[in-house]
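Q: What structure does this chain adopt?
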Amino acid sequence: MPDKQKKWYRLDTAALIFPAIARRNWSNAFRVSATLTEAIDPDILQRAVDDMRHRFPSFFVTLRKGFFWYYLEQSDLPVKVREDYAYPLTFMSRRELLQNCLRVLYYKNRIAVECFHSVTDGRGGSVFLCNLTARYLEMKYGISVPKEGLLRNLTEPPSEEELEDSFLKNAAEVASGRREERSFRLRGTPEPDGFRTLTTGIVDTQSLLDTAHRFKVTVTALLAAVMVESVIRMQNGRLPRKRQHAAKVTIPVDLRRLFGSGTLRNFSLVLNVGVDPRYGEYSLEELCCAVYHQLCAFATRQNMAGMIAANVQPQQLVALRLAPVLIKNLAMDFVYRRIGEGGGSLNISNITGLPLPQIMSDYVKRMEFIIGPQRSYPNNCSVLSYGGKTYINMIRSIRESELERRFFSRLVELGIPVEIECNRRS
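A:
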């Protein structure tokens, strides 16, 4: 049992799966970062991190293994600021997670926060980063940042809502089904040392919006449709049409807006959207229409409540609750292999709405979001818009770059100029 002298947290409903399915050289983590106008002072950044502990206690935790469940326990160890030393999202080992589930890194004028996914999701991590950056700017420049939007008063304790498992609160009485047709599997030559290649496409946000409006869809739907088209074209070069698989991408949906939640823990679920290319050819306009209407149809409060129930109800079975954590791990791993990532070829995760006070925007010139490759597929995509630019980060654990070449080339064909950055090794 956890030490009674320490604060501990049950894993939220979404977080339960991550320790169970983690494998050697793979852990589910993400990165959010802010690039400032001047070089980072690591000593001030360390003090800013220390000031966050009281206000955001659920981030300063370790992953512990109990007899029945994993849980998060308040960590006595400081989160030490480190210089960014390798590629983004290097492996978080069990040993590291026993010390802290959070990293704070810096490189030149960039602050990066990397977080194990059992702690929170991209939206929660973004709130933490924005508050950390605000505190750093206050300490370095002697300014006062207004506590508006995502920013919190660091002298106040966290609210109960911020620490709650909002899944339990918003589950429907009846669970929706889980079974979906399997999508095309992206494959390639694994990097032998676990290296992650990150390709960033920087585009003008207004140009992206104008193109999405031309197709009468959202930016997320447009990017998903272009990605589906890229996957279809990759299949066309490998398989005859009748042997192809569904071309779908996985879109995480932030449930806070749907349910009015203020939790800083995980509160998102995913939808798999796309088409089956065996039925015929699709124009990009048809793909945009299909993806957009699938998102509109399924990202509703009622449907998502049914999906929440599908995750919550198994936890409440007496047999599962009494089973040792080893048995739970085997069961969750089996379910994950059967249906966890089979419905999509890769994620497109888009964090929207990160408004910063004007005084901060004078110092912050860029913000980004990166999710790592999943366990069973080697490519992933994450998107964040800030300061008139949209940063599209495509990460892969394989050598082949066909997917991002097709994707970004198609954006250029649509009249969206793309500036490319890459950490590719020589």
